Amino acid sequence: MRIETQKLNAMSAFAEGTTCRRRALLGYFGETLAQDCGNCDICLDPPQTYDATEDARKALSCVYRVGQRFGVGHVVEVLRGGRSERISKFGHEKLTTWGLGREQSNEYWSHLLKQLVHLGYLEQDMANYSVLKLTETARPLLRGEINLLLARARVKTEKKKKAPRRVVGLEYDEQLFQVLRARRKQIADRDAVPPYVVFGDATLAEMAASLPTKAEDFLLINGVGQRKMQRYGAAFMEEIINYISR
Ligand SMILES: [Zn+2]
What we know:
By secondary structure, the chain is mainly alpha-helical. It folds into 2 domains: 2-151, Arc Repressor Mutant, subunit A (Orthogonal Bundle), CATH 1.10.10.10; 174-244, DNA polymerase, domain 1 (Orthogonal Bundle), CATH 1.10.150.80. It is built from 13 helices and 4 strands. β2 and β3 form a beta hairpin. The protein is elongated and about 75 Å long. The N and C termini lie far apart (63 Å). It binds zinc ion. Zinc ion binds next to α2 and α3.
């Protein structure tokens, strides 16, 4: 019973997650999903990503250094160079990872650790005070064999009409951009993939700026390769042609 309650607590944490909701949910039940579901709010409107490789390594090695015997709160404290009673009791201020993450906030590190749990690099031992442990998957990341791209935490804003992200230095037709986004959503739904798998916002913005109507022009856009050109080119050029001939 206690385990069940803790599972539920952990699940409430997934509400603030930035990985596919379904994937996160299944993760808590020890199941994995090969692909993102493509249908949840995160998949439909993916958050921005950043290269988290180095910070993930710091976090994972800190989990390892504290003996895989502590939960998120303590690991964050060690990373941030805290001086709590618990830290001195265990001599954790002597660890090489102590204070290694001082430049980032508590929120940043706990968000990162939660994402590492969601993605299966860490597991939380629900039956044992939610202690963090490394999984096999964490090894190549720790060894520097793979890189990790993570989602930035969403900044909670007042409910207002969402403005599309602007691409720095690029002037583009906003109305057309929205038309292209709608088309992308249709295609993503049809193919059961997240929208960014079709094209990212930056690519759509570039289309809305340069208005390609021929394959050769379409191919010049960042994020368009031969394969995507063949798969989606016609659909998006159709929208562009309709739009400019209105
Ligand atoms: Zn999803």
